[in-house]
Amino acid sequence: MSTWPMRTLRGLLCAVAAWVPSSAGADEFDVSKLSSNLDLASLSDAGLAARSITVLRIGNVELTSGRIVASDPLVGPGRPALVRTVPPGDYPVTLYEAFGRIAAGSIRFAEGKPVRWELALIPGQDINALKGEEFFGYPVDAGLGCYMDADTYALIQEREKQVRAEKSSSDINYYDDVLAPELKANKDKYAMHRPVAGERGNVAIFWSGWGDGFYPVFWGLDAGGRPLVLFTDFGVTENADGRREPGGE
Question: Whole-model pTM?
Answer without folding.
Answer: 0.86
